[in-house]
């Protein structure tokens, strides 16, 4: 489970996050939805302990990101906006390298490499140098490095950005399949993405949480602000809450 408690982040005088709070239960997929510059990446970088917040904290599977950052990191897999790949390494070498950095070795490392190869559909490029790969395969390798140590929590920053429709479907299916045993946050500014994958949605705008809940709950929050009659789509909800 993830418990985010009143996180604020200032870059100099600029507030990128303002007292952001939300929770994600085990087995749940949370979609962090917001326009460009809303603070999604900032929030994810704090949860993965790459950035230190100005105020507030969070716990990752019970580990506090400020006082137990190593434990919090061990329990978390992170796919940043740009996957952290080494273009000169082969896919199999790179995943061994990341696995070793995550403390795996011997039979366990071999098992996990095989698992991510199948789960992320990498057999076709397994021995290829990373610089030869298409964007979609690079994203899959990025996801594989986030999964190699079998973390309980996954933080995915725009996991389907730049992919073609078929690859998007493949990645969505993979993420949905992982949800049974993991706690997942993914960010996006694409409404269909949250509709397709998220159990619950947190809408963030200018660093603040403007609404959260399942789509039906968001609809209730947006209803008084929307001029539209009848059922509201996520797009209607987004427009009503953000304008
Ligand atoms: N290192 C930094 N120094 C100063 N300002 C920053 C820094 N990183 C981010 N910001 C600012 O903080 C705000 C939130 O940025 P962030 O990258 O978290 O947004 P985002 O929701 O991920 O946007 P996008 O959808 O474009 O990825 C933006 O206004 C951005 O310009
Ligand atoms: Mg971002």
Output the radius of gyration: 18 Å
Low-confidence stretches: none
Overall helicity: 25-40%
Mean pLDDT: 94
Order of strands, main sheet, comes to 6-7-8-3-9-10
- Separate helix tally: 9
Terminal CA distance reads 32 Å
Beta-strand content bin = 25-35%
The tally of beta strands, per DSSP, is 10
SSE run: EEEHEEHEHHHEHEHEEHH
Oligomer: single chain
Class per helix and strand makeup? alpha/beta
Ligands: adenosine-5'-triphosphate, magnesium ion
Largest sheet: 6 strands, mixed
Describe the structure.
The chain contains 9 helices and 10 strands. With 243 residues, it is α/β, with parallel strands linked by helices. The protein has a domain at 1-23 and 49-65. It has a 6-stranded mixed sheet with strand order 6-7-8-3-9-10, with helices on both faces. A 4-stranded antiparallel sheet has the order 2-1-4-5. The relative contact order is 0.17. Bound molecules: adenosine-5'-triphosphate (ATP) and magnesium ion. Magnesium ion binds at residues 40-41, 81, 157.
Topology of this structure?
Blueprint: E1 2-11, E2 14-24, E3 29-33, H1 40-47, E4 55-60, E5 63-64, H2 69-74, E6 76-79, H3 91-101, H4 106-119, H5 135-147, E7 153-157, H6 165-178, E8 183-188, H7 191-197, E9 200-205, E10 208-213, H8 215-222, H9 234-242
Helix pairs in contact: 3-4, 8-9
The protein binds adenosine-5'-triphosphate and magnesium ion (MG).
Entry summary:
This protein is an alpha/beta fold and 243 residues long. The protein contains nine helices and ten strands. It has a domain of 40 residues.
């Amino acid at each position: 489970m993830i418990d985010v408690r009143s996180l604020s982040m200032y870059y100099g005088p600029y507030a990128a996050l303002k007292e952001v709070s939300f929770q994600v239960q085990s087995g749940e997929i949370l979609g962090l939805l917001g326009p460009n510059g809303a603070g999604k990446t900032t929030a994810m970088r704090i949860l993965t302990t790459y950035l230190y917040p100005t105020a507030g904290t969070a716990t990752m599977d019970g580990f506090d990101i400020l006082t137990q950052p190593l434990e919090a990191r061990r329990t978390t897999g992170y796919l940043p906006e740009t996957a952290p790949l080494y273009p000169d390494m082969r896919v199999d070498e790179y995943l061994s390298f990341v696995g070793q950095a995550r403390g795996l070795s011997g039979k366990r490392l071999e098992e996990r490499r095989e698992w991510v190869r199948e789960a992320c559909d990498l057999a076709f490029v397994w021995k290829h140098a990373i610089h030869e790969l298409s964007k979609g395969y690079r994203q899959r390798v990025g996801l594989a490095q986030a999964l190699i140590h079998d973390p309980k929590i996954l933080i995915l920053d725009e996991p389907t950005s730049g992919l073609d429709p078929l690859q998007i479907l493949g990645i969505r299916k993979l993420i949905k399949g992982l949800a049974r045993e993991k706690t997942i946050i993914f960010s996006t500014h694409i409404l269909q993405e949250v509709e397709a994958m998220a159990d619950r949605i947190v809408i963030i705008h200018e660093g603040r949480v403007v609404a959260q809940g399942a789509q039906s709950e968001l609809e209730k929050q947006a209803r008084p602000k929307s001029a539209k009659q009848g059922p509201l789509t996520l797009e209607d909800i987004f427009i009503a809450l953000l304008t």
